[in-house]
Amino acid sequence: MSWNPTDYQFAWNVVWEYRYWLWEGLLLTLKIAAVSMALAMIFGLPLALIRMSRFKPLATVALVYIAVMRAIPLLVFILWMYYGVALVAGLNVDAFAAGTICLTLQYSAWLAEIYRAALQAIDKGQGEAAMSTGLSRSRAFARVIWPQAWRIIIPPLASNFIGITKDSSLIGIIGLNEIMRQSQIAVSLSFRPFELYTAAMGIYIALALIISPIASLVERRAARSLSLQTRRVSRSKKPLEAAA
């Protein structure tokens, strides 16, 4: 007797039975994604500034780093970090640390290019105008240039956070019990792959749908903050113009 696909019954009870497994995997996925993204954002900015440096040797080093990190497949990088470094250097790197390092290094390279593009999109006259009011170069960057660049960065930053959340599923190959690995273990026990992988896919979709509106909210708040900051700078220029 041949199997009829229409006879298949989706067993919701299997998903419910392993809900705590999926929940633990979700928490671990969010943890590694949040830590990796935060570190990538921190390292990405100085990397972008080095890439924009007028000192060519330094800029070349940053350019090579970015090119290499973006060229390595993440799965290969994770395996190399977890197994290769341990063999060569004798370091015992656990799965969470190895995954976080790989995600951080790769995404810092992607974010560096996003930062660079956003900073270069700001008119140089903005910084010069800010410094003409008496602000130092660093304060002009922090109070005038960066807020404008930050507004440009937010949408691709949200896309990268969604990407880093999905890419965290690759770390399961070295034993980290994130969503996909928890689903795989549950499948091996229940023999219901369709239900559990569908649930895992639904979780990733839900995360993306949550991240996108949060990014839009942050972008609107950044726009309001930038508008207020611009008005403050304009008011501070008027006394200097009057004195001149």
What is shown here, in short?
Helices cover 82% and strands 0% of the residues. The chain is built from nine helices and no strands.
Which value, in Å, is the CA radius of gyration?
Answer: 24 Å
The count of helical stretches stands at 9
Rounded mean pLDDT is 85
Give the biggest beta sheet. Answer: none
Structural class: mainly alpha
Give a written overview of the molecule.
With 244 residues, this protein is mainly α. It has 9 helices and no strands. The chain has helices at residues 12-17, 19-51, 56-71, 74-89, 95-121, 124-132, 137-167, 179-190, 193-243. Helix 3 packs across helix 5 (95-121). The longest helix has 51 residues, at 193-243. It is flat and about 75 Å long. The mean pLDDT is 85.
Topology:
Layout lengths: L11 H6 L1 H33 L4 H16 L2 H16 L5 H27 L2 H9 L4 H31 L11 H12 L2 H51 L1
Helix pairs in contact: 2-3, 2-5, 2-7, 2-8, 3-5, 4-5, 5-7, 6-7, 7-9, 8-9
